Amino acid sequence: MPAIDKVSTEKHEGDIVCIASYGDQIFTGGADGKIKIWDKDLNLVKSVDAHESYIYALAVNSKGKLYSSSCDGCVKFMQPPYDKVEELLRCDDVIQSMYCEGDVLFTGDDKGVVSNWENDKMIFKYNLVEEVKSLAAEKGWIYTVRDLDMVISEIVQGKSGKYVTKAVLPGKSPLCLVTSTDDGRHKYIAVADRTGKGFFIASNSMADKFKVLIEQQDCHEMIINAICTDDTHLYTGGYDNKVKGWSDLSQGKLKALGEVDTGSCVNALCCCANNKAVYIACSDGLVRRANFL
């Protein structure tokens, strides 16, 4: 039976807004402007005063460099052992989403601009028009979503800031790339549907015309805030205080693994590479660990 087997003994002041992992460490960003670092058993390793206010997003690159964005207009970063906060960017825009493809950072803001960074230098900006609430990127494709549509854009190589739209699917934030493949492109895209209470899984392939393969309608009683994957299983969580697990993605259908009740609104989820648990960021400031297997 799925169960919550660990709850952090310490907490953020207010909501935990975002969560990420690297190795055996879990990172949380909160409305208090703090980044907290936990071990896999949710013992607090370190608490860092990273921002002056609400943290919107976290992203970790392949070397463990941790990026954070906040409503103070800053993107900052820390490198292992996470004892020094450095500033990457200060601006007037609200950077709500970030994603690391290897060591390349992508940021998305409330004006619809996606920027990519290499070696902490901005390379290009792409004006995708609509506010970017959730973001992913790989192999020259950028995936963005707000409240009505998930858009897949292809970067035009050698053309500064140019892109072409490859597909538009009806859906809303959040989104998640699912199931790695040998060629470096994920096999599926998971996205909340327009109602927010369900989600769908689409093929991540132009040859398949990004066909919707699975629709899981009304699977939550309230809006889904978070989707994450460990590559073979999918997890969803939302305002109904529930986290639900799903498996058998490769079979063209989903098997429900059950659910856990957190007792608090689920704001974000992540999986840890070194175990089969899902980590849950909640509005009561606590982190929870759940096992579905």
TrEMBL record:
SMART domains: WD40. WD repeats lie at residues 9-39. InterPro entries: JINGUBANG-like, Quinoprotein_ADH-like_sf, WD40/YVTN_repeat-like_dom_sf, WD40_rpt. It comes from the Eukaryota. Keywords: WD repeat. The keyword 4Fe-4S does not apply. This is E3 ubiquitin-protein ligase TRAF7. It comes from Musca domestica (House fly). The lineage of its organism: Eukaryota, Metazoa, Ecdysozoa, Arthropoda, Hexapoda.
